[in-house]
Write a sequence for this structure.
């Protein structure tokens, strides 16, 4: 009974899918399912697959997985699938997974897994569902322009062919006005609606529109369409000129700045002072026209309007012209020799209209500042001249006289006004220096011509006044003024005439130290003789500064003093100096150090001290190396060294002169095994110093000394069967220690020479100590 029920259930499922979806059975794989009963393994109760899961792989693929019933092994599985866009399927599978491809995006699919056992027993799982991922949409199906006006475009579009929801549409556009080439671009995101109105476009503009949709996966490709906005009324033209002719007026204009389309026609409107209106049209390419039928002694108002496909736009600016009927002026002259006025005159015979006026216009350029100006005025018809009052000096005027206002054809003349005196300069700085006055100024703000020179003038209560002329500069130097006086200065600029003087500035011309002469006063002082510039001042104050450089040791120092009542000439002594010191003395008036006068001198040299130490080294049987260190006080420039050698046999004595830069002497041809006394003296420009002595003894003829190694005594004593050995070498040990001590002393002298007190080109150099190595002593 149970077997029959299972068979009927399986047949019912098959009929359901075959009749409802028309699927066919297809075998996929046989590699997985085990035949338990073939191998004799016991089988559990058969049942449906469990844990059926559907995984989304992409926008066109799903994967279904499952597990076999616990403890049983079906022969195979059947995957029954259905959903939008595919044919219902029935696939035989020998695996525990299956992939469905070629599906539609954003679509739900239904899947049942059937486990098939032997004897056609089968069990079906619960129905599982899966939904494919979204994808970017294709471009919208179409673009329809609903409305094109002069400043907007309305459009709509159809849904893209996709199953996925389109959440947003992006509309972007670029428009170009066909009448001036101006460009603009914008974009806008809609919230799902499929229509949009683009506003703010210029009339008569080409519009390129792009539309793209957006799903959860992003924007898709764009659909493009084009539109053209309608023409609109043009802006107003601009009249640039109106002239009077015989029985007509000639009008010239410029096109509208914003045509807003194609200009088809222009309309010229003329209205007389009696209200009569006359209109005349031209084609869109004409910019000059004549309007006939004018009468003399009447005002006419003219305007121009442009027309596009939309109609005529605004009228241009109004131009009013008075028709005189007179012939043009023949002569206009400018005349005048003054700097601030001139007259323009004309000749025109009789006047037809009683209310006629002459119209005068002018442009001016100031030649000394490049400033420009312009103006206009009108003169009654019975006048034949006009005077320009309060004109600017040295300015070029270009003046035109016409019968009709704002009309071409006026007769013109030009005129340059005369130069005039400039405004006053301003003194910027003024100061005195060693009796001269330096003065600087700024040029006049109003030159009123070409400034050719400046006049500097001065005066004093108790000194002579004066003037000095300078070329076109802004500073000058006045020399030769009397000292000890206060002067008042002013400056005036000149073109062809002198202008006003500047405000005055005072300056005091003080006495100053004109010269200082220095001489040496011996080894310890310098005498400075000075002289002021003049002896006519009541009293003189003087600052004295001096700097000292001791040339033989480079010690420097400085000092100063002041004198509130110094004679005009005199001397000053710098005392307490060391020999051979360079002294610079400067004198000036207090507060005016920049006016100082200076001199320098060097004190006399003096006898130097004896050398600090004499060192003898490298002694052989016939030679010795002798070096020495600087005197404590050199007191001058070292010229030479005197080195005297005196032996203790046969009255042997030699005297040697060594150059001042050297500080060593190599004695040769000495007598072996002889005691010598060496004396070194220093010679400067101040004299010869006392000597510093040292003594040494040359080695024996075989280059050996008098101290030979002693022989130790070895005494062997035997006491109680024991042996005590005593090594006595006392003499040898004492001799060795003495020689070792002497070697160390000489090496110390060689390696660490005393520091010189004199390093201004007169001290020892490395070369001066060459050859000072110490001979080794040997046991």
């Amino acid at each position: 009974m149970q077997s029959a029920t299972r068979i009927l259930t399986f047949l019912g499922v098959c009929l359901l899918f075959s009749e409802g979806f028309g699927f066919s059975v297809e075998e996929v794989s046989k590699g997985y399912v085990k035949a338990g009963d073939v191998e004799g393994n016991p089988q559990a109760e058969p049942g449906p697959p469990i844990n059926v899961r559907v995984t989304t792989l992409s926008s066109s693929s799903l994967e279904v997985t499952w597990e076999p019933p616990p403890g049983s092994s079906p022969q195979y599985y059947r995957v029954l699938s259905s959903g939008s866009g595919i044919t219902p399927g029935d696939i035989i599978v020998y695996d525990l997974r299956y992939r469905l491809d070629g599906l539609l995006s954003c679509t739900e699919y239904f899947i049942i897994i059937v486990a098939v056992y032997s004897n056609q027993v089968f069990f079906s799982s619960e129905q599982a569902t899966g939904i494919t991922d979204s994808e970017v949409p294709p471009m919208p199906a179409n673009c329809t322009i609903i409305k094109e006006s002069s400043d907007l475009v309305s459009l709509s579009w159809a849904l893209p062919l996709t199953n996925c929801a389109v959440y947003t549409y992006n509309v972007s556009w670029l428009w170009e006005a066909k009448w001036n080439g101006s460009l603009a671009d914008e974009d806008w995101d809609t919230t799902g609606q499929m229509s949009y109105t683009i506003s703010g476009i210029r009339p008569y503009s080409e519009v390129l529109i792009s539309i793209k949709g957006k799903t959860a996966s992003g924007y898709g490709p764009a659909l493009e369409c084009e539109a053209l906005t309608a023409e609109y009324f043009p802006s107003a033209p601009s009249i640039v000129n109106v002239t009077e002719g015989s029985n007509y007026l000639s009008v010239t204009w410029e096109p509208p700045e914003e045509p807003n389309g194609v200009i088809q026609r222009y309309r010229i409107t003329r209205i007389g002072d009696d209200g009569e209106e006359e209109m005349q049209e031209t084609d869109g390419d004409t910019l000059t026209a004549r309007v006939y039928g004018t009468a003399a002694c009447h005002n006419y108002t003219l305007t121009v309007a442009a027309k596009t496909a939309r109609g005529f736009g605004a009228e241009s600016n109004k131009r009013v012209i008075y028709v005189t009927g007179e012939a043009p002026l023949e002569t206009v002259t400018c005349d005048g020799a003054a700097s601030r006025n001139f007259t323009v005159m004309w000749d025109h015979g009789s006047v037809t209209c009683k209310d006629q006026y002459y119209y005068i216009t002018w442009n001016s350029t100031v030649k000394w500042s490049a400033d420009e100006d312009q103006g206009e005025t009108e003169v009654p018809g019975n006048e034949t001249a006009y005077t320009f009052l309060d004109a600017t000096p040295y300015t070029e005027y270009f003046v035109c006289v016409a019968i009709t206002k704002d009309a071409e054809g006026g007769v013109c003349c030009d005129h340059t006004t005369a130069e005039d005196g400039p405004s006053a300069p301003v003194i910027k700085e003024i100061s005195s220096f060693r009796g001269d006055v330096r003065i600087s100024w700024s040029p006049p703000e109003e030159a009123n011509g070409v400034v050719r020179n400046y006049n500097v003038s001065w005066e004093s209560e108790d000194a002579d006044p004066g003037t000095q002329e300078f070329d076109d500069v802004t500073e000058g130097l006045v020399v030769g003024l009397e000292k000890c006086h206060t002067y008042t200065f002013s400056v005036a600029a000149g073109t062809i005439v002198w202008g006003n003087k500047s405000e005055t500035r005072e300056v005091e011309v003080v006495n100053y130290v004109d010269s200082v002469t220095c001489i040496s006063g011996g080894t310890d002082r310098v005498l400075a003789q000075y002289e002021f510039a003049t002896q006519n001042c009541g009293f003189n104050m003087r600052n004295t500064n001096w700097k000292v450089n001791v040339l033989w040791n480079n010690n420097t120092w400085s000092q100063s003093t002041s004198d509130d009542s110094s004679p005009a000439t005199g001397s000053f002594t710098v005392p307490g100096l060391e020999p051979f010191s360079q002294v610079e003395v400067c004198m000036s008036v207090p507060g005016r150090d920049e006016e100082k006068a200076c001199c320098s001198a060097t004190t006399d040299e003096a006898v130097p001290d004896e050398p600090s130490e004499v060192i003898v080294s490298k002694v052989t049987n016939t030679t010795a190396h002798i070096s020495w260190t600087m005197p404590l006080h050199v007191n001058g420039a070292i010229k030479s060294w005197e080195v005297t050698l005196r032996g203790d046999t046969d009255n042997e004595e030699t005297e040697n002169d060594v150059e001042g830069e050297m500080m060593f002497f190599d004695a040769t041809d000495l007598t072996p095994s002889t005691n010598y006394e060496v004396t070194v003296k220093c010679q400067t420009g101040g004299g010869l110093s006392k000597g510093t002595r040292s003594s040494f003894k040359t080695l024996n003829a075989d280059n050996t000394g008098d101290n030979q190694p002693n022989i130790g005594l070895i005494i062997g004593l035997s006491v109680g069967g024991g042996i005590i050995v005593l090594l006595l070498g006392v003499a040898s040990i004492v001799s060795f220690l003495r020689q070792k001590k002497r070697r160390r002393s000489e090496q110390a002298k060689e390696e660490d020479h005393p520091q010189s007190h004199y390093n201004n080109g007169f001290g020892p150099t490395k070369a001066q100590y060459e050859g000072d190595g110490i001979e080794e002593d040997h046991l």
In short: The longest strand covers residues 555-566. Residues 1-41, 708-779 have pLDDT under 50 and may be disordered. The two ends are 136 Å apart (CA to CA).
